[in-house]
């Protein structure tokens, strides 16, 4: 029987941060910001483990004193293979459209099932690389009594640390993912020399084997073996992958045997770890000319030239330079002496903890840094980069009917613009397969993707024609690329990346639209993700034409193309054509039944009124078509979200993490800070896991990112000039934010007291005129290149 081993001392957490081990001062805070998740117990399961990531590799650190587990991911390791799944719509599409527009949805659906159903229907999953286990105390009869246990993740340094004492010895572990050196680093040390004895093993539950590749190194090599699965594409040996762990010891011995490295009697041990696959992003496929084992060897070879201290120093420097660009205080009490799980518990029991909201806000920024940047290429998926399952929930894919887009909502406004690049990379790459989907399935030009994609560039309809027909996935992605330009004003990005993407997306839309009975341009077929309507005869469908969201997306896309086209001197005839189409789109309508925004082109009854998707409010957020300047729509938008909530509270849908996070952003746009704060509290109370991961359930990272974007949106909006503190909750009496980013590439600091603005500071890299707003005050100011511009509570310039 294992004795209870954790007798936790009451010593204040901070005191543990300054132990001296073997002459090395280990300072818990280092260059960090004091923003930490910390716990007095090891993770009992994955949802308590702590994430580190460098954009290409991720790891979840459990911190168990007896058996440490570090679960590993590499961004490109996917099951499946590249397939051409598009159905040939040529023969079917005209009839499907005709039936939809005539209101004969049953026939349209039957025809779609026959003519538009893709093959294979589904995609396969993003997979983990495997696990590192570190076993201690294997040969002891009874486990020693452990004390002063603490594990933490310091968001400012990106270092996960575990510490505990036994028999007068203090043991410390540090884990971080270095973007500079492209590796994961694990260091174990003991306060008493010669006391480190353990076995580190590298494992994967399937499709791989591990051998020593040198006396101090392990090599895992594998190949995903896809078993036959209904409608999921070819079975067979697919993506190849490898991982290497190299270890070094100070004192004692270190030796690789079988799948393990045995360390005995050491003072300190350090491991560098990397993984790779034969995935080639350029080809959106695996590529047999790539040898993952050699890739790993090359990465490790470089890292081995560098000692732990300099790798760590470079990591902290690089990490903190990005992370520290933005600071937020909500005037909260400092509760850092209370473990994070207990703070969360207190909130779940009804307390409010603004500091926890700040921590979650910054955690969203941290998680985007961990899952979306160089050396990685791919964007953050449904779980960022962190996934433990061979068959993950929703395959941990890139869901393009909101989830992938939501992941990137905080990238620009939270001053992390370079983290957006992987989103652009994928959007740009999807133009290749997306042209086939546009031309074959939808008989149009340009490119598009439906409601999901994977690393193999799936763009065809997936998961069935009712659910998966969402030709607006591409235009929505394109719009986000355009928005990134609006934030950064990077002309080169506009010319070389954004413009080709949005222009070709608009080509798709123009070729796809058809005229309805009122002579207006509509999409057909499509759906309003992922909601179902009921016809007067009781039949229920998802498939439709001219869903409100589609019209809003197309309006925004045409507006973007017109603005970009004018900037770039595009052909006037084309611009005029777009302008004409825009005028001939159906209007956004208000439902006669409920006074809400009408979700479909007809005022259908919704089957699930508390549905998690609120697609018809796309025009409220992320787009900016529904604003206080259109009072009727603005009011209808409020009613729409309230109605969703009302039904959700009766237990009819809605409560998923990302959906609540969307509500935070929408309430911010409705200028209702108290409602936004209530939704944040709901997220904390019902939808947050002990490691502060968002709980869909299960874990899904979009909620984390949507949360972060939402908090920023409450403090600053910039879709229509700069609006300071547009949705400040009553509970946020005082506070201070430094380093938000507004469209126009303007950095914004704001402080407030007693719920009133105190001071604003703006810095713009270029000279420009901007409209600013606070409460009822409106004005225009001229910013000079690089010169800070400060305003007081009356929006008067400060000296
Ligand atoms: C959409 C959502 C689900 C889930 C999935 C990954 O289908 O409706 O709630 O988030 O994406």
From TrEMBL:
GO terms for molecular function: hydrolase activity. Residues 1-25 form the signal peptide. Residues 717-787 form the Alpha fucosidase A-like C-terminal domain. Residues 37-280 form the Glycosyl hydrolase family 95 N-terminal domain. Pfam families: Glyco_hyd_65N_2 (PF14498), Glyco_hydro_95_C (PF21307), Glyco_hydro_95_cat (PF22124). Gene3D superfamilies: 1.50.10.10, Golgi alpha-mannosidase II, putative glycoside hydrolase family protein from bacillus halodurans. InterPro entries: 6-hairpin_glycosidase_sf (IPR008928), 6hp_glycosidase-like_sf (IPR012341), AFCA-like_C (IPR049053), Alpha-L-fucosidase (IPR016518), GH95_cat (IPR054363), GH95_N_dom (IPR027414), Glyco_hydro_b (IPR013780). Keywords: Hydrolase, Signal. Residues 308-715 form the Glycosyl hydrolase family 95 catalytic domain. Coiled coil: none annotated. This is Glycoside hydrolase N-terminal domain-containing protein.
């Amino acid at each position: 029987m294992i004795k209870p081993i954790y007798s936790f001392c009451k010593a204040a957490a901070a005191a543990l941060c300054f132990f001296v081990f073997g002459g090395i001062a280990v300072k818990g805070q280092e260059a960090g910001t004091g923003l930490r998740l910390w716990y007095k117990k090891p993770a009992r399961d994955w949802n308590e483990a702590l994430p580190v990531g460098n954009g290409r590799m991720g790891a979840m650190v459990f911190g168990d004193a007896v058996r440490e587990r570090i679960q590993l991911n590499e961004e490109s390791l996917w099951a499946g293979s590249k397939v051409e799944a598009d159905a040939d719509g040529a023969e079917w599409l005209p009839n499907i459209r005709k039936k939809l527009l005539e209101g004969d949805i049953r026939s349209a659906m039957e025809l779609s099932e026959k003519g538009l159903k893709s093959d294979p229907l589904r995609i396969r999953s993003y997979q983990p690389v495997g696990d590192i286990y570190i076993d201690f105390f294997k040969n002891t009869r009874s486990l020693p009594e452990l004390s002063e246990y603490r594990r933490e993740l310091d968001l400012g340094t990106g270092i996960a640390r575990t510490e505990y004492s036994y028999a007068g010895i203090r043991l410390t572990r540090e884990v971080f993912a270095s973007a500079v050196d492209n590796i994961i680093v694990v260091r174990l040390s003991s306060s008493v020399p010669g006391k480190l004895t353990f076995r580190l093993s590298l494992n994967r539950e399937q499709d791989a084997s591990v051998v020593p590749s040198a006396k101090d190194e392990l090599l895992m090599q594998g190949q995903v073996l896809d078993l036959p699965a209904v409608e999921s594409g070819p079975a067979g040996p697919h993506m190849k992958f490898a991982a290497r762990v190299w270890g070094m010891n100070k004192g004692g011995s270190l030796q690789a045997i079988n799948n393990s490295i045995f360390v005995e009697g050491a003072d300190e041990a350090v491991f560098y770890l990397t993984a790779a696959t034969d995935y080639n992003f350029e080809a959106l496929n695996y590529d047999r000319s790539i040898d993952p084992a050699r890739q790993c060897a090359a990465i490790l070879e470089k890292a081995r030239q560098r000692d732990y201290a300099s790798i760590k120093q470079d990591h902290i420097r690089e990490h903190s330079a990005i992370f520290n660009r933005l600071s937020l205080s909500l005037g909260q009490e400092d509760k850092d002496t209370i473990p994070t799980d207990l703070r969360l518990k207190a909130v779940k029991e009804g307390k409010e903890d603004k500091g926890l909201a700040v921590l979650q806000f910054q955690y969203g920024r941290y998680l985007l840094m961990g899952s979306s940047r160089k050396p990685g290429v791919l964007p953050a998926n449904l779980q960022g980069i962190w996934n433990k399952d061979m068959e993950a929930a929703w395959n941990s894919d890139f869901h393009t009917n909101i989830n992938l887009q939501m992941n990137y909502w905080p990238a620009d406004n939270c001053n992390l613009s370079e983290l957006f690049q992987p989103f652009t990379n994928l959007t740009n790459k999807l133009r290749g397969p997306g042209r086939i989907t546009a031309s074959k399935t939808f008989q149009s030009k340009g490119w598009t993707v439906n409601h999901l994609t994977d690393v193999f560039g799936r763009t065809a309809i997936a998961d069935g024609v009712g659910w998966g027909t969402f030709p607006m996935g591409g235009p929505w992605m394109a719009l986000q690329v355009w928005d990134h330009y609006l934030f950064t004003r990077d002309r080169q990005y506009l010319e070389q990346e954004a413009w080709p993407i949005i222009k070709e997306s608009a080509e798709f839309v123009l070729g796809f639209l058809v005229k309805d009975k009122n002579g207006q341009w509509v999409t057909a077929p499509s759906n309003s993700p992922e909601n179902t309507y009921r016809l007067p005869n009781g039949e229920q469908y998802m498939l439709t034409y001219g869903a409100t969201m589609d019209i809003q997306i197309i309006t925004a896309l045409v507006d973007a193309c017109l603005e970009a086209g004018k900037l770039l001197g595009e052909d006037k005839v084309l611009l005029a054509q777009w302008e004409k189409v825009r005028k001939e789109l159906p209007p956004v309508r208000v439902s006669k039944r409920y006074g809400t925004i009408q979700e479909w082109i007809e005022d259908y009854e919704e089957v699930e009124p508390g549905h998690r998707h609120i697609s018809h409010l796309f025009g409220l957020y992320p787009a900016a078509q529904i604003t206080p300047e259109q009072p009727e729509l603005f009011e209808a938008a409020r009613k729409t979200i309230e109605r969703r909530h009302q039904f959700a509270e009766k237990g009819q849908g809605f409560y998923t993490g990302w959906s609540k996070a969307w509500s935070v952003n929408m309430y911010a746009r409705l200028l209702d800070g108290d409602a936004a704060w209530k939704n944040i509290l709901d997220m904390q109370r019902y939808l947050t896991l002990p490691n502060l991961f968002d709980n869909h359930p299960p874990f899904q990272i979009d909620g984390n990112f949507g949360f972060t974007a939402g908090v920023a949106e409450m403090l600053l909006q910039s879709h229509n000039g700069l609006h300071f503190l547009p949705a400040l909750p009553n509970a946020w009496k005082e506070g201070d934010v430094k380093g938000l980013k507004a469209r126009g590439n303007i950095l914004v600091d704001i402080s407030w007291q007693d719920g009133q603005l105190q001071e604003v500071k703006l810095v713009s890299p270029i000279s420009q005129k901007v409209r600013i707003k606070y409460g009822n005050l409106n004005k225009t100011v001229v910013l000079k290149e690089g010169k800070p511009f400060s305003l007081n509570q009356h929006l008067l310039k400060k000296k």
